[in-house]
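Now for a concrete sample entry.
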Amino acid sequence: MNQQVLDREACYRALLTRDARFDGQFYTAVLSTGIYCRPICPARPPKIENCLFLPSAAAAHQMGFRPCLRCRPEVNPAKQRTWAGSNLVDHALRWITEGAFDDDCVEHLAERLGVSGRHLRRLFARELGTTPIAVAQAQRVLLAKKMIVETTLSMTDVAIAAGFGSVRRFNDAIQRNYGRAPKTMRHTSTSNGNMTAGITLKLPFTPPYDWEAMIDFLAGRAIPGVEAVDAGKYARSFQWDGMHGVVEVQQESETNHLLATIYATEVPPIGMIVARLRRLFDLDANIGMIDAHLSADPRLAARVRERPGLRVPGSWDLFELTVRAVLGQQISVAAATTLSGRLVATLGEPIKGDFGAALEKTGISMIFPLPAAVMTANLTPIGLTRAREKALQSLATAVHEDRLFFQPQPSPNKTIEKLCELPGIGPWTAHYIAMRGYRDPDAFPHSDLGLLRALETKNGRPTPAELLALAEAWRPWRAYGAMRLWVQPKILPAAR
C-alpha cells in the first residue's frame, strides 16, 4: 500500500475495528494531538477529520508527529513488500536497517544500488511517502525506544546499538520525538545490561504463525557448529566487524511475537540483527492474504486449512545460504548438512568471547567462513568433487572482490540470470537462493523433484512444464505454494 492508493474510508474502518490485518499497512497521524498510531491502537479513535493516513512511520516522523506510547509503533510488524513494487526500495531499506546509511548520504546509498540519488528519492516518495534520510532517522528512534523499554542496557549502549553517532544526538532525538528524556521512558531504574549475559527483544508478527514448520525446516538444515535447534529454540553464531556473538530465538506461547536473546562481545548493531532475524523467520509476511490466495486452488486449499500461517524460511546471510545451496545440489539434506559442518570445521573461525551457558546449551562454537577463507582453500578433503569445489571458490571470489555482488537486479528474472552465470549454479539453485535469500515471494524451483512428487496423482506426476503452468494461479506467492508442497507432500486436494 503506497501513498497513492491509501483509501481514506477503508483505513478509517480498519481503525474503528482495530483490524489487525492492517497493522503495519498504514499509520494514523492525529492532527489534534500530534501523535501517530497503529491501526490497532487501544486509544479512543479520533474523528475522521482529524486523521491523516500515512504509508510509513518515517512519513509521520518527517511531518513532525510523535510515536504513540500506547500502541508502540516500534513493535508493529512491518508490511511485506513484493517484487511487484520497487526492488530497489526493498534493498535500500535492507541496507538502511543494517547500518549502511549511517552517514545519511543518499548519494552513497544510491551508488550502491546503481541509480542516481534523485531516482532513489523519487522511489521512496512514491512507495513510502518520505525520504531515505527520514526512514533511517525514524528507524533509529523506534529501535532506541524498543531497547529502552525491553532491555536493561545503559542509555549509552542503547545510543550505540541504535546507530546514533553520539549520546547527545540520541538524547535530542528521543526528546524531540517523544517529548520526554530517555531515562523517564524506562519502567525500571536498572541500567546494567551486559551483552555477554544477553539481552532479549520481542520480534512481533501478524498471526497465524506455524512455528513448528519453521523450526523443523531450519533444524534439518542447521549448519553444525554455526546453527542449532533444540527444544523448539533456534540459535546461531554471527560476526560483525570482528565482533562475535550468538542469538537464540524462540516462540513465546499465546503471544504474537518471537523472543530473541542476543549475546555479544560488545554492543552490536541491534538493528542489523533484528532485520536479519525478521527476514530469516519471515515475520513481515501478510500471511492472511497469502493463505487466502493459495486457498483458491483446490490443490492447496486442504493444506492451508490444516496448517495456516506457513512461512518461507529466509536466511541470515546470502553468502552462507548460497554456499549451503551449492553443497546441497543433487544430494540429500542430511548429506549437505554433513558437508556444511566439515566446511565450517575446516575453514570457520572459533567464536571469541565467553558467553557461558549460551554456548553450552547450543553446542555452537564456530563462525561461518568468510569468502576470503573459501576462495583459495583446498576443499576436496571435506568430500567435494572438483566441480563443486570450483563452484564454491568462484562464488567466494566473486563476493570477496565485489562488495556489491548481491546487489539488486532490475527484476527477479535478472537476479536468476546473474546467479546462473556462476559455475555450478543452475536454475533450481538460483530460484532457491532467490526464494530464501532475496526474499522473492514468487520464486519457484519448478523442476524440484519434491514439488513434482507432492502433486502426483494416480495418473502420474506432472512434468516441470506442467507444474509451472498450474502454479501460475499462485502468483505472486509461488514460493509459499512451494513451501506447502515441501512441508505437506501427502495432503489430498479438496473435492471439486
The domain at 87-185 is CATH 1.10.10.60 (Arc Repressor Mutant, subunit A).
